[in-house]
Amino acid sequence: MKPNSWRFVVISLSAVVLVGCGSSSAGRSGASGSGSTAPASATTTAVGVEVTGGFGSKPTVTIPNKPAPANFAEQVLTQGDGPVVAKGDTLVANYSGQTWAPKDGKPHVFDSSFDRGQPIAFLIGVGRVIPGWDKALVGKKVGTRVLLSLPPADGYGSAGQSTAGITGTDTLVFLVDVVATYRPDAAAPGTVVANTTGTNVPKLDNVPGKKPTIVSTSGLRPPTSPISTLLVTGTGDKIDPNKTLVLQLVQTDLATGKKTQSTWGRAPQTVAAKQVLGLAGKLSDQNIGSRAVVLVPATAKTAATATQAASPGTPPTILIIDVVGQF
């Protein structure tokens, strides 16, 4: 594993694709809800857009040859029965977006997670996505499929988004499936692993489903490669190495036990499972709800290159990883 892959331990949320256009209890963790999957027959919405396909399937969206609606419009096509999406949640969604007006005589689909075969995750209701998404998706239930018609003010404004072929006058049409939602304090149940004390484990408060607290780093020695220890075994689905994991993280300076960062109470972080498992090998073949502690080596500073910015390097750290979901 390359040292650069350890850098996901820096706890921050990257910009959401949509901005730049490029199973647990519902109260504590994300939960997948199901709607009554719609039949394959077409549904014509109030604004005249025709949609074929049910929740979870790639839709066919046909826009009528008439002027776009002047105002924001939404229509629920499939009503979910899962948790309600709240402001500040990390929302997981599949979507397809296109302009109301065709481009070069053809429908202009500028982005589709259905085509990529992977949902996206983003903070909702806090200005991290386009205004129409914040307006429409807070309050929806997981398992809901909704069609949105967004005038420029609810999309990319008068500047548009040239890289996606969106002008400042384009009305946007989105078909969105609400896949899962995770509260800032999302957690998942598990059972404490017995006999986890040792030279590779800091002293800590280790209660499943609650933020772990590092009490002391005394006696720990900086590792030369990542060393992981399983602290909690989860009770959810098996961790799938081909999916994206939803994580709560606590990161602390190994030498001093200070300079702690945490996602708990802020927003879970989403990371490719293979990257997580490469760092925390003890999570392999475990279930959602599992927790591991990792001693992470220092990384050396690097100079800038033509393809990569300079890095100041990082000291040895302790990382506690809670796997609270996957998609």
Task: Report on this structure.
The chain is mainly β and 327 residues long. It folds into two domains: 152 residues, Chitinase A, domain 3; 141 residues, Chitinase A, domain 3 (Roll). The protein contains four helices and 18 strands. The strands form four sheets. Strands 10, 13, 14, 15, 16, 17 and 18 form a seven-stranded antiparallel beta sheet that branches. Strands 4, 5, 6, 7, 8 and 9 form a six-stranded antiparallel beta sheet that branches. The protein has a three-stranded antiparallel beta sheet with strand order 1-2-3, with no helix packed on it. Strand 11 and strand 12 form a beta hairpin. The protein is elongated and about 70 Å long. 40% of the residues are buried.
